[in-house]
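Hi F.,

I've been meaning to write this up properly since the lab meeting, where we talked about keeping a consistent format for the predictions we share between groups. The idea is simple: the sequence comes first, exactly as it goes in, then the structure tokens exactly as they come out, then a line or two of notes. No screenshots and no reformatting. I'm using this chain as the first example so we have something concrete to point to.
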Amino acid sequence: METDTLSISDILIIGGGPTGLFAAFYCGMRDVSCKIIDSLPEIGGQLTALYPEKFIYDVPGFPKILARDLVDQLLEQAVSAHPDICLNERVETLVRREDGVFQLDTDKGVHFGRAVILCGGIGVFTPRPLPGRNSNDFDGRGVYYFIDHLEKFENKRVLVVGGGDTALDFALMLESVHAQVTLIHRRDQFRAHEETVKQLENSSVRVLTFCELDAVHGTDWVESVDIVHNRTKDVMALEVDAVVSGLGFSAALGPIANWGLEIDKNEILVNTRMETNIPGVYAAGDIVTYPGKVKLIATGFGEAPTAVNNAKTFIDPKAKLSPGHSSNRKDDGGTSGKEE
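Output, unedited:
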């Protein structure tokens, strides 16, 4: 099967979250063409789909930045590399043809590339269901699994369920718009960053430990909940306008798991070059694992250039692995980084 050379991208990037966007930008730094394919309808991955109103504190150069603003900045940066962006396409199969070109089939079409970088985040994610009778009956009618617009919770009575980073972040976000927030957790220890726990302790959020959601009540909308103390078994009724789940999400690699990649606990094994066991296929971000791996956006920002630089040498064995410093790149109004 022959393919028009113009339709072949140098690098196919699967995933349009922060790592994928930075990988696309870096493709421009190495003068390789790229295409981003993502199953979500909007660019930005989890940050756009789940946490657009969440502040992020551990991105270098930003004391704090809203997730949606970070995505906007990353997209502006990535666009400079002129990537093709294909959204709302679910990847299905990946094969390397006899001519060495990778063929990626999605539910919408076919894409071709000389190398592939997997930046799929945590993979296909679905919210963990809320416990409690009738919870599912109120999805979209007062029960939420993520916060896309904070203003709709302003001055509302909100129950947040959970004890991890997601739950605590949601509770603190809601407090910022003057919501009356109650947080319940089934234990008295939180699985969140120490600094976030300190912020919670110094906030106006009402915290109830050893408590679980027992039932959700209402007619057309959530009106109240029953909360059970899991030690005393006492039940407390609480009037609320909304229930927000902070129980997190379950993730799966989906069809990627059937591509012949080495996988450990739903994560793709890579080496220090971000290479998978399949030559020409690289991976970066939360989707990968290796000894000492730490799942942070900042980590993905380091892994993406490593993957791109090594993919460059795979495509062109004569190319240098190290591109030099970005300050050596001449742009309009830029500098060569050298003394004149």
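Notes:
The helical segments are 18-29, 46-49, 67-79, 165-175, 194-201, 297-315.
The first strand starts at residue 8 and ends at 14.

If this format works for you, I'll send the rest the same way.

G.
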